[in-house]
Amino acid sequence: MNNTGPTATRDRSWRSRRLDPDQSLGLRLTLAAAAAILVLVPFALLALLVLGAWPPLLRLDASVTDAFHGYALAHPAWVRAMTVWTHVFGPGPLRVAAAVVVVWLLWRRAPRLAVWVVTTMVVGGLLGALLKLLVGRNRPDLLEPVARAAGYSFPSGHALNAALAAGVLLLVFLPFARHSPAGRVALWAAAVLLTVVTGLSRIALGVHWTSDVVGGWVLGVAVVAATAAGFATWRIGVGHRPTRPLREGVEPELADPGPESRGA
Cα–Cα distance between 197 and 243 in angstroms, integer? Predict the structure, then answer.
């Protein structure tokens, strides 16, 4: 039977609109949700392995901690450098930096973007604190510790907040480098450096297992991806064009002159 009537025409028209990346909000929502879920899957698997005390993971954590701790004991200058880094880029200072960005965004008449920054940092921080209590994992117990930290271990709060802050700052400031490949590379390099070195500093100081840090990184990326997807739908809902967040940030109009272009 040849399905060429008005119903078939309407069906084809609906499918073409749904698959049109410039018109289909539903498709974009689906893809954004799928991306966020795909990022969360590794975190969920890692959390299950930690809760189940999977022997290969425990052995890997112990071997990496032993290697870093041995190096730290033999290199006091390394310990001092990692201590300074972990304090300068700890959760507190990064939240202050995010708050400064929020004030600047309000001054730039970008209140929606300011709300996104606050939401991302708060949701990520609360999730991290809640998961620490639910998992209840103890920190490394070393005979000659070079640093100490209180509370539970998984996921690492420093790694989580570094990933959150790096993601937020990257996606806020990418619009100013969207026409500059070198600028984009510099922003990405700074975000990766902040995230990676902050996480590694916690392993180097012997206050977190490697899986704690990896869990913090993955959770931070998942939260940023999820809130950025939500912000993208918010933009489209008020009539703004779709964006390519990893290239031009979540609000490209932020770098344009004039308050009306910033979507107040």
Answer: 30
